[in-house]
């Protein structure tokens, strides 16, 4: 789950609207079911104040060096895959420290680098075992949510199924969990009480050369992720495949709308730019800028289209995307959603192609901690870059690569990579036939996250990559 500076907790377990009473998270500004303003009911106990806890500011490192003539930025492990920027120059390599932490010098007013406002992260629990089917999941989520496992559901007897119906699918109006009870008008099963999935609870899409799956997970009451897939072509007719994945920032207002707006805008812009002859890396940059503008526009209106109320936490999301065309692989991102490269030959190394905009990544880059120590810290997932009206200065990251062998590009939210963080772990979770069956492989990865605990929304898009024949030219 992505985190921005958190609003004060209202201390409510359920929406105070008598017509709603849905469970709410202590950090929600508005009820996710009816939109009730939860902060309007917050009153401190008589005679008590609300002291704040000071959080020591970390030593933020300087931004990585950049070539002013290039859009590319350094990645966490750039040397693991051959790559070039949009000008055809080799991407620089940077040694990555993997041993113990380096003692941080005491910063002084003269030597400390300038830093953006420090986020106040909320501790986030790591992956936990999945409870037995039907048990209530407690802690770390939006609220206590019964999570029956559909994989253990009762199958419909083919003999009693409607003529011509698929025996593996429930009949219309039948519960997707127990596959026996009737669903009432409120969307709950009259037999087992299971709430039926909404449209965004589980989404799948497959085009000819790309597939994506998004799932609500086991802990949240809604899916705040979104994605967009596009197949287009360059001016000379060569095909190009685009995958965009966005993760709504849960501590912000209307995160589900933010991710949907960003994915839709980015997919549309890059799908129009490539046929015009725009370089894929420049097109990715323009797409991220357009996505940021779309999310910023949400801050000016409320969920019903009216002017947004004053105050609150502006809608926000992260973004990661990939473009695959004629031997060129381009990735772009803002936030902590990631892109991975997994070769078909699993004896070759996999690689992570993006660097998180997060507290943990900043600590690793500064040499103050190794990755294990940084991601074990409760501040690890506090993001330092996002799309939204209250974001710091927008700096879209892009990079271009030219893999010399076939493989699969994985773009995903932290709801997946929290359960397969290292590139080797992601390669281990990805089926070996992913390039031939990307939708099946995406389902397997989502299942891997659900089996690990399903702590967050999960979204992944897979694009097979084939290098051009030896001696053929490329972009």
Précis, in short:
This protein is of the alpha+beta class and 475 residues long. It has 7 helices and 15 strands. It starts with 82 loop residues before the first strand and ends in a 10-residue tail after the last strand.
How far apart the termini lie comes to 36 Å
Strand content is 15-25%
What oligomeric state do the depicted chains represent?
A: single chain
Low-confidence stretches: 42-80, 84-88, 91-170
The helix content, as a percent range, equals 10-25%
- Total number of helices: 7
Computed over alpha carbons, the radius of gyration is 23 Å
The pLDDT mean sits at 75
Profile the largest sheet.
Answer: 7 strands, antiparallel
Backbone shape = globular
Name the structural class: alpha+beta
Number of strands: 15
Features of the shown structure:
single chain; 475 residues; alpha+beta; seven-stranded antiparallel sheet; six-stranded antiparallel sheet; 7 helices; 17% strand; globular
């Amino acid at each position: 789950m992505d985190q921005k500076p958190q609003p004060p907790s209202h201390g409510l377990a359920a929406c105070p609207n008598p017509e709603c009473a849905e469970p709410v998270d202590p950090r929600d500004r508005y009820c996710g079911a009816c939109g009730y303003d939860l902060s309007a009911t917050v009153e401190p106990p008589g005679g008590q104040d609300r002291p704040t806890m000071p959080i020591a500011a970390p030593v933020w490192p300087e931004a990585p060096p950049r070539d002013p003539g290039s859009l590319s930025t350094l990645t966490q492990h750039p040397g693991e895959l051959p790559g070039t920027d949009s000008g055809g120059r080799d991407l620089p390599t940077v040694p990555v420290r993997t041993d113990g932490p380096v003692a941080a010098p005491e910063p002084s007013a003269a030597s400390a680098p300038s830093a953006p406002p420090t986020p106040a992260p909320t501790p986030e629990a790591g992956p936990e075992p999945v409870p037995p089917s039907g048990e209530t999941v407690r802690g770390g989520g939006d609220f206590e949510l019964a999570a029956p496992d559909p994989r253990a559901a009762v199958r419909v007897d083919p003999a009693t199924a409607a003529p011509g119906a698929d025996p593996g699918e429930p009949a219309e109006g039948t519960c997707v969990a127990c596959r026996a009870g009737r669903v009432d008008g409120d969307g709950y099963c009259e037999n087992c009480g299971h709430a039926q999935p909404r449209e965004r609870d589980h989404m799948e899409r497959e085009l000819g050369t790309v597939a994506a799956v998004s799932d609500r997970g086991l802990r949240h009451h809604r899916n705040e992720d979104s994605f967009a897939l596009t197949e287009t072509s360059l001016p000379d007719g060569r095909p190009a495949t685009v995958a965009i994945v966005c993760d709504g920032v849960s501590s912000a207002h209307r995160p589900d709308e933010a991710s949907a707006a960003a994915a839709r805008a980015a997919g549309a812009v890059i799908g129009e730019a490539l046929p015009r002859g725009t370089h894929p890396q420049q097109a990715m940059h323009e797409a991220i800028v357009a996505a940021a503008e779309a999310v910023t526009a949400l801050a000016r209106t409320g969920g019903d289209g009216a002017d947004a109320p004053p105050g609150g936490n502006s809608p926000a999301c992260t973004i990661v995307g990939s473009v695959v065309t004629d031997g060129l692989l381009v990735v772009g991102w803002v936030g902590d959603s990631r892109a991975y490269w997994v070769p078909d030959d699993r004896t070759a190394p996999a690689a992570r192609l993006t660097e998180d905009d997060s507290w943990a990544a900043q600590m690793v880059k500064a040499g103050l901690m190794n990755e294990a120590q940084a991601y074990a810290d409760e501040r690890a997932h506090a993001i330092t870059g996002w799309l939204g009206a209250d974001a710091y200065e927008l700096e879209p990251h892009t990079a271009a690569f030219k893999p010399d062998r076939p493989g699969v590009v994985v773009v995903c939210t932290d709801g997946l990579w929290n359960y397969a963080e290292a590139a080797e772990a992601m390669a281990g979770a990805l089926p070996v036939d992913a390039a031939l069956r990307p939708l099946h492989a995406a389902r397997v990865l989502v299942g891997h996250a659900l089996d690990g605990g399903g702590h967050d929304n999960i979204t992944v898009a897979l694009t097979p990559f084939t290098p051009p024949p030896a001696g053929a030219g490329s972009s």
